[in-house]
C-alpha cells in the first residue's frame, strides 16, 4: 500500500519528537494535553521513534492514544536505533548523539543497528512501549546522519540486507502496512529508488523540503517519487523552529544567513497579511509528491496554530513575490500553480 493511499485524508500529521523532551523538559500533563489537542483538531496520523528521548515519546504517545480506538488512526515509528537497559551517565550523554536534542529524555543508552534481528527487536520494543498491537508504517531512521560521515554507505548496506528485507517480509505478511526510510538527507532516498530489489512504499524526509531548503530535493527526488506514486511525508516543515518563531535551524542555533532569509520571507508575509506557519505548511503540501506534513508540537496551542495555518487563505500575490524574489526555487510547485 503506497504511503499516499495509507495517509489519504491525513495531510496534517503530528510529529512527536518534542514529546521526547527535545530541547526542554516537558511536563507529563502538557505532553498528554498536546496529543489530545492534535486529536481534537482532526489529526489522525502520529509519527514517533525510539530515538526521541530514548523511548519517552513512544511511551507518552502510547498513553495518550490508549483512550482512542486503534482503527481510527495511523501510527508510524522507526527502526535503526535500539534502546538498551544500560543507563548512560551524565558526562557520556553530554558528549553523545543525544546531547542538546534530548538531554532531558530518558537516560538509556542507544545503539545504531540496521540488521534484521535488530529491526525485529526494535519493532517488538516499540509495540511494548506504546502498548499497542500493531504499527502501520515503519521508517528506517537516520541511515545517513552527518555524524556517520563517509561511513553512511556501510550503514546503508547493512540496512539493505537487514531492515529492508525484514520490513518487506512483514508487509507481505500483513504485520505492517508500509515501510520506507525516515531521513534528513536526500541521498539515501535517491539511492533506494535506484535499487531494483527495494520496493518501499514511501519516505519520510525531514528538513530537506521546506521554504528554506528544497532545491536539492526538487532536482531528482520529488519528480521520481511523484512518477512512482511513492509518497513523501515531510517532517520539519518549520526547519527546526526558525520558521515558527524559534531560534533553531537544523537542530542548532540558526546562523546569520538563515535568520536573514527568514526575515525576508517574514517581511513579504507581513505585507500580504500571511502567517509564516501557513506559508511553510502550504508550500510543502503544494508538491504533488507530498502525502502529508508532520510538524512537531509540545504545547496544545501550537497544534491549534498548525490546524489554522493549514486552512488560512494565502493570496496568489504572496507566492508570486516569493518566486520573483528568488526565495523559492523557480521549479518549486506553489499553491498558486493549482489555481
Automatic annotation (TrEMBL):
Tagged with keyword Oxidoreductase: yes
Q: Which residues form the NADP-dependent oxidoreductase domain?
A: 12-324
Query: A single Pfam family, by name?
Result: Aldo_ket_red
List its EC numbers: 1.1.1.107
InterPro entries to which the protein is assigned, alphabetical: AKR (IPR020471), NAD(P)_OxRdtase_dom_sf (IPR036812), NADP_OxRdtase_dom (IPR023210)
Q: Can you name one GO molecular function term for this protein?
A: pyridoxal 4-dehydrogenase activity
What name does UniProt use for this protein?
Pyridoxal 4-dehydrogenase
Show the PANTHER family listed in the entry: GH17980P-RELATED
GO cellular component, alphabetical, reads: cytosol
User: Which keywords does the record carry?
Assistant: Oxidoreductase
Family annotation (CDD domains)? AKR_AKR15A
Give yes or no: UniProt keyword Oxidoreductase.
yes
Amino acid at each position: 500500500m503506497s504511503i499516499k493511499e495509507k495517509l489519504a485524508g491525513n495531510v496534517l500529521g503530528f510529529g512527536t519528537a518534542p514529546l521526547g523532551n527535545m530541547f526542554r523538559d516537558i511536563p507529563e500533563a502538557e505532553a498528554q494535553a498536546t496529543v489530545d489537542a492534535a486529536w481534537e483538531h482532526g489529526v489522525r496520523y502520529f509519527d514517533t521513534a525510539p530515538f526521541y528521548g530514548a523511548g519517552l515519546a513512544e511511551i507518552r504517545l502510547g498513553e495518550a492514544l490508549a483512550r482512542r480506538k486503534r482503527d481510527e488512526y495511523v501510527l508510524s515509528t522507526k527502526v535503526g536505533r535500539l534502546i538498551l537497559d544500560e543507563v548512560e551517565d551524565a558526562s557520556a550523554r553530554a558528549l553523545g548523539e543525544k546531547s542538546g536534542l534530548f538531554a532531558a529524555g530518558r537516560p538509556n543508552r542507544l545503539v545504531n543497528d540496521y540488521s534484521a534481528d535488530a529491526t525485529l527487536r526494535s519493532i517488538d520494543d516499540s509495540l511494548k512501549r506504546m502498548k499497542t498491537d500493531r504499527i502501520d508504517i515503519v521508517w528506517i531512521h537516520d541511515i545517513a546522519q552527518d555524524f556517520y560521515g563517509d561511513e553512511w554507505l556501510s550503514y546503508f548496506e547493512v540496512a539493505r540486507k537487514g531492515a529492508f528485507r525484514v520490513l518487506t517480509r512483514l508487509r507481505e505478511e500483513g504485520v505492517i502496512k508500509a515501510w520506507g526510510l525516515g531521513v534528513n538527507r536526500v541521498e539515501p532516498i535517491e539511492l533506494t529508488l535506484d535499487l531494483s530489489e527495494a520496493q518501499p512504499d514511501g519516505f519520510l524526509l525531514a528538513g530537506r523540503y521546506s521554504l528554506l531548503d528544497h532545491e536539492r530535493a526538487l532536482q531528482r527526488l520529488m519528480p521520481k517519487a511523484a512518477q512512482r506514486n511513492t509518497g513523501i511525508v515531510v517532517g520539519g516543515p518549520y526547519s527546526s523552529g526558525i520558521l515558527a518563531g524559534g531560534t533553531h535551524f537544523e537542530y542548532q542555533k540558526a546562523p546569520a544567513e538563515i535568520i536573514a532569509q527568514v526575515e525576508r520571507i517574514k517581511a513579504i508575509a507581513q505585507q500580504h497579511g500571511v502567517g509564516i506557519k501557513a506559508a511553510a505548511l502550504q508550500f510543502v503540501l503544494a508538491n504533488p509528491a507530498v502525502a502529508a506534513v508532520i510538524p512537531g508540537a509540545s504545547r496544545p496551542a501550537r497544534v491549534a496554530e498548525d490546524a489554522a495555518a493549514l486552512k488560512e487563505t494565502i493570496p496568489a500575490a504572496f507566492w508570486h513575490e516569493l518566486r520573483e524574489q528568488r526565495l523559492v526555487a523557480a521549479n518549486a510547485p506553489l499553491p498558486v500553480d493549482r489555481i
